[in-house]
Specification:
Elements (H helix, E strand, L loop, with lengths): L1 H14 L11 H17 L10 H10 L5 H4 L4 H10 L4 E4 L12 E4 L1 H14 L1 H14 L26 H34 L11 H13 L2 H12 L12 H5 L2
Antiparallel strand pairs: 1-2
Helix pairs in contact: 2-6, 5-10, 6-7, 8-10
């Protein structure tokens, strides 16, 4: 027991507490997440992408004891991109594996900075789940410190992270979920109303072909995301840890004030 305590103290001396008072990650946390991003991008298929795509993230979480297939496999790519944009995760859009060169890239792939933002937020939302993911990652893989080019220590103490979800982060997620659901419902109603109008009245021809209202509607929906994108994103924000799968309560209901 004393040896175990000594190892934990030694590990804490190395890692330190991983969050600043302003809830941003420390330099050490950013180095760790940078190393994990490098591992995912280089070692998890498909590795031909420059950035980390949803398939790779799903495989990574499975490898460290998680299951985020509901988000990274089952959620449409456009909704994932909308989620990334909503929480400020820097990402690129990559072509689908079967793209013939004529379609627009739609697969959202996290850049290193974007992954650091993503995982930092998840640690604040659900440390009891995401801290073990990181502990398993450093224990199972040789995660390389980008500053020293040497593997991080295998022991990552639980004490280096928050011991409970951050209330302000949960409240913000809940607010975003409510806003997105309301906006999706509004867009859906507007789309149905326009469809009903279109079936009873003639449509003006727009210059260069196509109807004026169709061209306008397409641009309106693409500007801030379609109703379908918002609906998919709202499902994530409502339950970002997917705790209600298999009957478990959601993070919002469990930890809200």
């Amino acid at each position: 027991m004393e040896d175990q305590d000594a190892q934990t103290r030694e590990a804490m001396d190395y890692w330190g507490y991983m969050f600043e008072e302003n809830k941003c990650g420390t330099k050490k946390l950013n180095q760790l997440l940078s190393g994990i991003w490098d591992h995912i991008s280089k070692n998890i298929d498909p590795a031909e992408y420059q950035d980390v795509n949803p398939t790779q993230l799903a495989a990574f979480y499975r490898a460290v004891g998680g299951d985020y297939d509901a988000l990274f496999v089952e959620t449409p790519p456009t909704s994932i991109a909308f989620i990334y944009k909503s929480i400020g995760c820097l990402h690129s859009l990559q072509p689908a594996p079967d793209d013939d060169g004529y379609g627009a890239p739609q697969i959202p792939a996290l850049k290193k900075k974007g992954y650091i933002t993503w995982q930092t937020i998840q640690l604040l939302l659900g440390p009891e789940e995401h801290v073990p993911f990181l502990q398993n990652a450093v224990d199972k893989f040789d995660i390389i410190d980008p500053e020293t080019n040497r593997p991080f220590p295998k022991l990552l103490p639980r004490e280096a992270f928050p011991d409970h979800p951050d209330p302000s982060m949960i409240e913000w997620y809940e607010d975003v979920a409510n806003k997105l659901r309301a906006e999706a419902e509004q867009q859906g109603n507007e789309r149905r109303n326009r469809t009903n109008v279109g079936t009873t009245s003639p449509t003006a021809e727009a210059p260069n072909g196509g109807s004026a209202h169709h061209r306008r509607n397409s641009s309106e929906e693409s500007k801030d995301g379609s109703a379908d994108e918002r609906t998919g994103a709202a499902e994530y924000f409502r339950n970002p840890l997917y705790r209600n799968r298999e009957g478990r309560p959601t993070v919002v209901h469990r930890y809200s004030k």
